[in-house]
Amino acid sequence: MSSAAPDIRQYGTRPDGTTMLVAFTRALAAAGLPVGPERTGRFLQGAAALGVDRGRDVYWAGRATLTSDPDHLPVYDAVFAAYFSDLADLPAARRTPAVPNKVLVPLADLPSGAEQDEQIPPSVKAGAAATEVLRHRDLAGLTDAERRELAQLLRLLEPGLPRRPSRRRGPHHRGPIDPRRTVRAMLANGGEPGVPARHHRRTRPRRIVLLIDVSGSMTAYADSLLRFAHAVHRSQPGAVETFTLGTRLTRISRGLAHRDPERALTAAASAIPDYSGGTRLGDTLKAFLDRWGRRGIARGAVVVLFSDGWERGSPEQLAEQISRLHRLARSLIWVNPHKGKDGYAPVQGGIVAVLPHLDHFVAGHSLAALEDLLEVVRRA
Fold first, then answer.
1. Is 108 part of any domain?
2. In the chain, at which end, N or C, are there fewer CB atoms within 10 A of the end residue's CB?
3. Which residue, 101, 117, 150, sits at the end of a domain?
């Protein structure tokens, strides 16, 4: 992977920006990568979400959606560098860079001795794809460079939140007959009967409530979890509420409403007064339920609580508040970053007290675990 992707800002304002990106995917296909319509569509969605004014964003959008094998990465990097280095000299996607072929020689046919060094072509050693390895790395042990790559991958998440039936109905080709539309169509047709109009019940996004523990024991995961919360906010504005839990309750939904993740995290961080402090889950959950939960935010919602379960207060009080929350919510999910580690056992006082009141108890230590969490939320 090159250290810096080319700057394609000069092409971001062109009216054929989408055509340019589609031509790039065709260049990759001509170079031998299995790029089809489905991957091309995901690439265009990712590029549209990140914007095409920054070459690095387009690079990562393509790498995350158009490659699926370690052997694809050298080809992808070569095509990307050649295609975006001088777009004016590339009239069509047929002009693709020459990609060196890799020759596979059976082990039994390899010569021995001095002739071996002369006749064996250079071997291409490809380890596990960096992106795939990063997906399974523990968020607490990432380097600064890996955290920057993780931030790019989190921006590409497509949460696909659950939906619920609405009271409103809309036109549809199947379903019960809509008397009003049917009668209006008959009057417009001079009273002659026609094909009955039908309707069905519409759906609307189900509310998602994210409760993120930002105490000292969760500091290593807090930044990634807040970025995850921003991705969920961006996918369905208006249907997601986010609060932080520490020594006090803080609502950060307004800060996370910014489209840009860096601005969103800056606004959210400035609103959190107890970042990396103590833990009083029972008190903060009681404050949430008394002020927000009973007013409707938690009623019928999917509530996701991120915490390792370390509690300074009484576990009995925590269990009581979790029980109240469980009765209000449609589904209550507890995400523990330590659950995905080998040898973990739910022995913390807070976890032991709340387990009987949870619908799901899942891991949250890696990007792959957070993707699995999204699947649990979709089915809730």
1. no
2. N
3. 101
